[in-house]
């Protein structure tokens, strides 16, 4: 593989520097680096970030290849500046055995757009009753370290306790989808002023907060770490903040859409805004931004959830929950966190690369942009503004809530171990 | 009902209050004469101004015949043939006198006779209300330009007009004064 | 431009009064030997019912036929048709047949809104009840009934319900009738109080333009109309209240309670009534109870709505009304 010189990029948003890639690693970072023998990428004014890492992606393969495959999902990831994604376990069949996780892992390796790190199910069939073979999945070629029943909550306190304890043996982590099931029967949207008016079943904040409260206490009790998926309410922020202040080993993620959108959008009854956990209120959005800025919430994760057109082109109650997010995540974070002055680009790198890689144990990802490190890099044109056109998505699905919305920033290049997966905004 | 609301500021009166009163008196006498005493006459005014004219005619008939003359109103909105050309209008009241119209001589009363479409609609509406012995038509002004084979039995004033002109009837009950105005249609 | 009737909240005060006034004229047609008007001749209306509701469908059908519209009844109860994709497919099938208006009843809140705004069809959409969201023609017929009884048939023309005190009692949480009535009655100037056990009042009710009380007895004496909502027995099993007996003791309307209402006050019910639950037979059968009147008034109101939405080349009921030139 030849050399690539990225010239004049603001590394992590700092001073303009040159970055020289040789093969799969960064050879040098500095000013006035020689371009001899290297393909030059002029990056004047652009921001260079470590390759983004998404701890929460639904790739749908196996089982729902009509909405996404490992190939289309990893192309979407590369397009959005990601070099590693963690693939959720709620496929058909469920990723609850070594066989399924290895299949997903290998597909990611074969396609080569983005590393795919499978997440294993906590319980068999996501049914919440019996622990899946967590150790076998860890020991498989996929080397699973993150376990989640995402889509469903591990609501049985004993099962949750056991899972938290069990994965300590090999440094695993349980990622909880916090949703008390009885409090959310028939839930269609955030419970509050808008749901009362629209007559849609309410998904109360307390259904999330009560599970988070229980789980941080469980984690403290058994001395385990726990990760909270897609935290969505101001109350959840308070609980996590309290838990961290007590020294409990908890990490939490927020999705881009929960940083930007509110339940007022549901007034359109357009199912493109139907997602789980649901869009909350303005007050929640502001609390989430603040928590992401101050570190209470550790990372941004997309919860990229592709659905075919027909599952959204219908009445609200019949529609599937979820939004695609890989290709718009960085733009939404720039809009809500960077352009508002809440985060620097170095802060974005921390929350979208270093920290998610550390939580999930993604080897070779989330590394500093410095000599000798793997060349997993993302180049962003932060001055760009444009409206979102789903027709241009690499994802097989188009269920984005941002269609036609103007967002800032555009990923122009992505390198996975020195190999360009995205050049000038086009997938290779 | 065939009047145009738009009339130029140069509109000139063609009938004034006393003329209107005289004309109605004449029509009342004609009704008594043609109906041979107006024994079974029922007056039905077409809203809005036809109703006031019908009430005035009824009063005059009562003076002449010294009998109570049944008077009511017949809203034709739902029977119009041009409904689909305008937004729906608010409905006016149809009020059929207590003894009904079956076997009676119904005299429809309107302010202006123009295309004849209003009267056509009124005949349809009447059909759904009962079966009169005969139907006659009384109008204050006939301005010509018929689009249907319809004529009035009693006419207050024949007023030859051009299609570029407007005829506006004003009555004290609705407009504060009695007058018939002839004006030029305002160009939009 | 608004050419659908999706929510009672979409109606202005003048729109609502125009509908009530028009309904008053429509009601007179029912007294005539020929109960028919030619107004919607040549127009096709489909009654698209994804949920069983014989009384609402019959009421719309009667209204449509009295206005001489061609009526197609489509009852799509069952599993495959009630799925989302089929709403779109069904709608487009009807559109292809040249339907001018769709009267839709659907179990999913927002389905009529979606039908009207998704670009699937061009026809006018009239909401005949969607999930726990809205049932605007029910609210209109209730307001019509109140205006007739509390203001008078002729005296009521052009009038709203300013200052009237209306109490709505029962399962507000699951009631599209309550939502529609709160919106419309507020628009018409009435003062609305909702009475229910706290479990049957939605979280978020605090922004509604009404009062909320948990005590029926204290509001009864100050009510011009008391509307009892149906309470399904199954709610008991989901712990909304302990027993049927306790519910009817605290929130049911019996003869003794009715006697404490002001003399002129009326009892209303959208039907179907659960006798012995929210209302006793004594109250249901009394002269003060307007249940049967409400049914008759429903036809007049639906005639008025259909005429005003479909009678002309553009609807008369709009947010920004274009005055006739």
What does this structure look like?
The complex is a heterotrimer of chains A (428), B (188) and C (325). Chain A is of the alpha/beta class and 428 residues long. Chain A has 2 domains: 3-47 and 373-384 and 405-427, Urease, subunit C, domain 1; 51-360, Alpha-Beta Barrel (TIM Barrel), CATH 3.20.20. Chain A is built from 11 helices and 19 strands. In chain A, strands 1, 2, 3, 4, 5, 16, 17, 18 and 19 form a 9-stranded mixed sheet that branches. The mean pLDDT of chain A is 97. Chain B has a single domain, classed as Rossmann fold (3-Layer(aba) Sandwich), CATH 3.40.50. Chain B has helices at 17-34, 49-65, 117-129, 172-175, and strands at residues 12-16, 41-45, 71-73, 105-113, 134-142, 154-158, 165-170, 179-184. With 188 residues, chain B is α/β, with parallel strands linked by helices. Chain C has helices at residues 13-29, 54-66, 84-96, 111-117, 136-151, 176-187, 216-220, 244-251, 255-259, 281-284, 291-310, and strands at 44-49, 70-75, 101-106, 124-130, 165-169, 191-195, 211-213, 225-228, 266-268. Chain C folds into 2 domains: 8-134 and 298-310, Rossmann fold (3-Layer(aba) Sandwich); 136-293, Aspartate/ornithine carbamoyltransferase (Rossmann fold). Chains in contact: A-C, B-C. The B-C interface holds B 5, 75, 78-79, 83-94, 124, 128-130 and C 18, 21-22, 25-26, 28, 32-34, 36-39, 307-308, 311-316, 322, 324-325.
Determine the CATH topology of chain B: Rossmann fold
Largest sheet of chain C: 5 strands, parallel
Q: Which second-level CATH architecture of chain B applies?
A: 3-Layer(aba) Sandwich
Helix content of chain B: 25-40%
- Which structural category do the helix and sheet elements of chain C fall into? alpha/beta
Q: Bin the strand percentage of chain C.
A: 5-15%
In short:
The complex is a heterotrimer of chains A (428), B (188) and C (325). Chain A has eleven helices and 19 strands. Chain A has helices at 70-79, 98-111, 134-139, 157-166, 193-198, 205-222, 234-245, 256-260, 282-294, 329-338, 345-360, and strands spanning 3-11, 16-22, 25-30, 38-42, 47-50, 52-57, 82-87, 115-118, 146-147, 173-176, 189-190, 202-203, 226-228, 250-254, 299-300, 377-387, 406-416, 419-423, 426-427.
């Amino acid at each position: 593989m030849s050399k690539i010189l990225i010239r004049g990029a603001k590394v992590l948003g700092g001073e303009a520097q040159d970055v020289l890639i040789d093969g799969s690693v960064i050879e040098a970072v500095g000013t006035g680096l020689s371009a001899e023998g290297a393909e030059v990428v002029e990056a004047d004014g652009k921001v260079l970030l470590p390759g983004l890492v998404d701890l929460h992606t639904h790739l749908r393969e196996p089982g729902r290849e009509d909405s996404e495959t490992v190939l289309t999902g990893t192309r979407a990831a590369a397009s959005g500046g990601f070099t590693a994604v963690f693939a959720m376990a709620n496929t058909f069949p469920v990723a609850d055995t070594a066989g399924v996780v290895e299949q997903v892992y290998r597909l990611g390796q074969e396609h080569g757009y983005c590393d795919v790190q499978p997440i294993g199910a906590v319980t068999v069939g996501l049914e919440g009753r019996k622990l899946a073979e967590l150790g076998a999945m860890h020991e498989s070629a996929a080397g699973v370290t993150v376990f989640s029943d995402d889509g469903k909550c591990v609501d049985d306190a004993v099962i949750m306790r056991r899972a938290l304890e069990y994965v300590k043996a090999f440094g695993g982590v349980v990622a909880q989808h916090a949703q008390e099931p009885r409090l959310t029967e028939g839930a269609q949207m955030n419970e509050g002023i808008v749901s009362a008016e629209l007559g849609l079943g309410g998904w109360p904040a307390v259904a999330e907060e009560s599970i988070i409260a229980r789980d941080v206490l469980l984690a403290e009790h058994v001395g385990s770490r726990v990760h909270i998926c897609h935290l969505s309410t101001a109350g959840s922020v308070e609980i996590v903040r309290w838990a961290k202040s007590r020294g409990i080993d908890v990490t939490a993620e927020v999705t881009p859409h929960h940083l930007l959108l509110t339940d007022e959008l549901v007034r359109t009854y357009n199912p493109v805004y139907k997602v789980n956990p649901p869009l909350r209120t303005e007050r929640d959005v502001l609390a989430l931004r603040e928590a992401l800025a101050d570190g209470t919430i550790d990372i941004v994760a997309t919860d990229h959830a592709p659905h075919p057109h027909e599952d959204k082109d219908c009445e609200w109650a019949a529609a599937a929950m979820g939004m695609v997010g890989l290709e718009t995540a960085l733009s939404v974070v720039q809009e809500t966190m960077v352009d508002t002055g809440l985060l620097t680009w170095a802060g974005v790198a921390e929350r979208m690369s270093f920290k998610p890689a550390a939580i999930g144990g993604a080897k070779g990802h989330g590394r500093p942009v410095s000599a000798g490190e793997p060349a997993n890099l993302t180049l962003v044109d932060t001055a760009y503004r444009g409206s979102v056109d789903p027709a241009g998505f690499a994802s097989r699905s188009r269920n984005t809530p941002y269609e036609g919305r103007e967002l800032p920033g555009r990923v122009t290049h992505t390198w996975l171990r020195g190999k360009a997966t995205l050049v000038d905004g086009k997938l290779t | 009902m065939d009047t145009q609301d738009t009339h130029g500021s140069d509109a000139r009166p063609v009938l004034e209050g006393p003329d209107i009163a005289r004309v109605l008196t004449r029509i009342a006498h004609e009704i008594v004469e043609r109906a041979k005493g107006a024994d079974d006459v029922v007056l039905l005014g077409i809203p809005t101004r036809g109703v006031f004219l019908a009430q005035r005619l009824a009063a005059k008939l009562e003076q002449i015949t010294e009998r109570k003359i049944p008077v009511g109103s017949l809203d034709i909105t739902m029977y119009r043939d041009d409904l689909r050309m305008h937004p729906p209008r608010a409905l006016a009241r149809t009020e059929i006198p207590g003894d009904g119209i079956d076997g009676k001589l119904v005299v429809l009363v309107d302010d202006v006779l123009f295309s004849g479409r209003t009267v056509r609609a009124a005949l349809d509406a009447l059909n759904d209300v009962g079966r009169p012995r005969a139907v006659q038509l009384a109008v204050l002004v006939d301005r010509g330009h018929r689009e249907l084979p319809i004529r009035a039995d009693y006419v207050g004033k024949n007023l030859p007009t051009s299609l570029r002109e407007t005829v506006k009837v004003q009555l004290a009950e609705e407009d504060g004064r009695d007058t018939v105005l002839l004006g030029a249609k305002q160009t939009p | 431009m608004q050419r659908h009737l999706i929510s009672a909240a979409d109606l202005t005060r003048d729109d609502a009064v125009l509908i009530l006034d028009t309904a008053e004229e429509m009601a007179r047609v029912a007294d005539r030997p020929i109960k028919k008007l030619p107004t919607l001749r040549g127009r096709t209306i489909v009654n698209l019912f994804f949920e069983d509701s014989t009384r609402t469908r019959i009421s719309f059908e009667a209204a449509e036929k009295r206005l001489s519209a061609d009526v197609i009844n489509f009852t799509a109860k069952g599993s495959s048709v009630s799925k989302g994709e089929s709403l779109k497919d069904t709608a487009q099938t009807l559109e292809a047949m040249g339907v001018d208006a769709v009267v839709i009843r659907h179990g999913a809140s927002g389905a009529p809104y979606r039908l009207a705004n998704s670009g699937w069809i061009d026809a006018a959409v009239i909401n005949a009840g969607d999930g726990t969201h809205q049932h605007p023609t029910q609210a209109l017929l209730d307001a019509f009934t109140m205006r007739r009884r509390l203001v008078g048939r002729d005296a009521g023309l052009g009038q709203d319900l300013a200052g009237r005190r209306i109490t709505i009692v029962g399962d507000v949480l699951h009631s599209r009738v309550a939502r529609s009535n709160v919106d419309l009655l507020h628009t018409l100037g009435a003062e609305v109080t909702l009475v229910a056990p706290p479990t049957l009042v939605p979280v978020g009710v605090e922004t509604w333009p009404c009062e909320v009380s948990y005590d029926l007895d204290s509001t009864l004496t100050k009510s011009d109309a008391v509307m009892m909502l149906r309470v399904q027995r199954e709610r008991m099993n989901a712990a909304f209240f302990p027993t049927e007996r306790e519910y009817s003791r605290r929130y049911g309307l019996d003869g003794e309670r009715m006697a404490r209402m002001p003399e002129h006050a009326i009892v209303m019910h959208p039907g179907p009534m659960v006798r012995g639950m929210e209302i006793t037979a004594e109250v249901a059968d009394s002269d003060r109870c307007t249940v049967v009147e409400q049914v008759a008034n429903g036809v007049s109101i639906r005639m008025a709505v259909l005429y005003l939405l479909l009678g002309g080349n553009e609807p008369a009921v709009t947010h920004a009304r274009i005055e006739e030139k």
